[in-house]
Amino acid sequence: MKQCIIKRNNIKVQGSGSRSMLFAAGFGCDQNVWNSVAKAFEKDYKIILFDYVGSGNSDLQAYNLNRYSTLDGYAQDVIDVCTALDLNDTIFVGHSVGSMIGMLASLKHPEFFSDLIMLGPSPCYLNDPPTYYGGFEKEQLTGLIDMLEKNYIGWASLFAGTLLNNTDRPEIRSELEDRFCSTDPIIARQFAEATFFSDNRKDLLNVTVPSLILQCSDDIIAPIEVGEYLHHNLPSSTLKVMAATGHCPHMSHPEETVKWIKQYINKPSQTYLQADRGDFF
What we know:
Distance between the termini: 44 Å
Radius of gyration: 17 Å
Low-confidence stretches: 270-281
Mean pLDDT: 89
Strand content: 15-25%
Helix content: 40-55%
Structural class: alpha/beta
């Protein structure tokens, strides 16, 4: 069973530390998006990288339409990875929807995780006035998914540019486009629907694992209001508004991303909050 999961999710283990860090990609991406960030932790941590079934070099034959129709199926991938490697008290680092996937996994198995580090997370992308601003109207998301189905290449280019919101890094945009285009369009559409029409707001108060929310500046996908909402509704959470712009700081601003993760995990939580509280609102 262990070897089956390792192959299915294309699990890679590197680094020499005694503690583990598990990195989870966001929508449409594979483990390689973490290359610049994960490398900075290899000396002190055991680094675990994996691909969701349907992404990267995972076993596509294991993809199941029913299982992956909701984020719970992807959360089970995370649980399976932790079980296969016998992980406990692992630092989970997730990007975008990967953050919510890790959060859902922690609700079922909190013992697997010591901390949840979330880059650009969002519990709900839809606006729900007057109490919640997620950034999108339903018609916008429906249009985005329709474009994915009708013109996948055009969608990949448009969405990569939207994610980055950073025109001075064309090489990163090209890398994102390539990753989107390498995913089967049918799988990509189902993952998009599971991502953008999910609503995990009611789950937040049940989370018991401490979390760091890394909120990007000028992020179209997860605006500042979303980060603040998460901070106010996630118990034991810390919010850091980064100088990085766009939605993919691990790719566009890896140095800043590494800096804030290291500061968080290298300090006792109470000390961290007291020392830097003014930066976290």
